[in-house]
Design goal:
InterPro entries: Gate_dom, Spore_IM_YlbJ. Keywords: Membrane, Signal, Transmembrane, Transmembrane helix. By secondary structure, this protein is an all-alpha fold. The protein has one domain. It has 19 helices and no strands. The termini are far apart.
Length: about 400
């Protein structure tokens, strides 16, 4: 009872503190909100929406069940999750945060995985997508495309390592897990057909449900991105970031890292995009040190993404604690892999070239193909977002009218 009251007081105090901070720094809050909105509007929404819609349709048509039967002999021995986890892993790696959590939650709601299996699965199916690692971080912030190779290798190796560790999470193997299933195309096709018949929704209804569910999830994600962008900005202006950064300085100095990385590292714990950008600007650190810290925050994925995942998992009985624990492990292993792979991978790639943190000036010029393509993508992303939001409103209005008439 006392802990419950203490939690209530803490949450109420945090909300009041947030409100007063917004009043004290209105201009900074608006600026941070616009930054988060711009990121969601141009990049997050158009990049995640197709994956979300397609995954919903694949589940409804039984394709995920089909893939699950074929991948069962691979996923069960390695990660102690059903074969459908292979689909969640692939889609999570391709589309990025928090697609893995959404797919895991849907599989749990469909009854295709148990609670423990879902908690194992969600711990290693949420990762950053290659486009973000190579495009935004490596090229956009560090101006070094080759750095993306080492960051991606460390990130995905760390993710798979988390999956192998989390296989020991939970109770001993159940009879269901001990059953050895043979790969059978006939059985897989039979389950695909049975799943589609059981769903029993017309294609139009299934597509509408996929759009509605995907847009609702992305609206929630957009809210969290904007919220944590504002929180990060306010913490900086309230000098709270600098206060906690002093503690991180001690840890960094123990490992012989520059103390200047402390503030970017703390910012990255909240929002990985801002943290990665700030790390790239620290001239006192070597490129290897910058890469190690960047890998750590990419693996941890930031409180912003974790809040998104927590909101998705709250719709099911999946516990959030294993996911949070897995993010700490992922961050540490990603940093470790960056360290041990730096010599044999990155330095070997650059052994015949002069290592540099910069790209040719022509590449960064406003008239270069890079900037032209990025500008076109940003403009197209905004158009896609607005168009899909309009479609969502139309579908929602029609369903409200149908419900009212019926």
């Amino acid at each position: 009872m006392f802990r419950s009251k203490l939690k209530t007081i803490f949450l109420a105090s945090a909300a009041l503190f947030m409100a007063f901070s917004l009043i004290a720094f209105p201009q900074e809050a608006v600026s941070a909100s616009l930054r988060g909105l711009d990121m969601w509007l141009q990049i997050v929404f158009p990049s995640l929406l197709p994956f979300f819609i397609v995954s919903e349709m694949l589940i409804g048509f039984g394709v995920v069940k089909f893939i699950g039967i074929l991948l069962e002999p691979f996923m069960r021995p390695l990660f102690r999750v059903p074969g459908v986890g292979g689909f969640a892993l692939a889609m999570g790696m391709a589309s990025g945060y928090p697609a893995g959590a959404k797919l895991t939650a849907r599989l749990r709601q469909e009854g295709q995985i148990t609670k423990t299996e879902a908690e194992r699965l969600v711990s290693f199916t949420n990762s950053s997508n290659p486009l973000f690692i190579f495009g935004a971080v490596s090229v956009g912030f560090f101006h070094n495309a080759k750095l993306g190779i080492i960051l991606a290798l460390a990130h995905y190796l760390g993710n798979l390592t988390v999956g192998l560790i989390m296989r020991f999470y939970g109770n001993r193997e159940s009879k269901r897990e001990q059953e050895k299933k043979q790969i059978s195309i006939r059985v897989a096709l039979s389950e695909l057909h049975r799943t589609r018949i059981k769903d029993n929704r017309p294609i139009g209804k299934l597509l509408g449900d996929a759009v509605m569910s995907s847009v609702q999830t992305l609206l929630m994600i957009g809210g969290f991105i904007i919220l944590f962008s504002v929180i990060n900005k306010l913490l900086f202006h309230l000098h709270i970031t600098a206060f906690f950064a002093e503690a991180f300085e001690i840890v960094l100095l123990i490992f012989h890292f520059p103390a200047e990385l402390s503030i970017p590292f703390f910012s990255g714990l909240f929002e990985i995009t801002l943290g990665s950008q700030l790390i790239s600007l620290i001239q006192e650190a070597t490129l290897m040190e910058q890469a190690i810290v960047t890998s750590l925050i990419l693996g941890f994925c930031g409180f912003s993404v974790q809040a998104q995942v927590a909101s998705i998992l709250a719709q099911t009985d999946i516990d959030f604690k294993p996911f949070f624990f897995a993010r700490i492990i992922h961050g540490l292993f990603a940093a470790f892999y960056t360290l041990i792979l730096w010599g044999p991978v990155y330095e070997r790639i650059n052994e015949n070239e002069q290592p540099s943190n910069t790209l040719p000036v022509s590449f960064l010029h406003e008239d270069s193909p890079f900037y032209t393509n990025m500008a076109s993508w940003a403009e197209l992303g905004s158009v896609i977002t607005i168009a899909m939001l309009a479609l969502y409103v139309v579908i929602y209005a029609k369903r409200m009218v149908f419900t009212k008439n019926s």
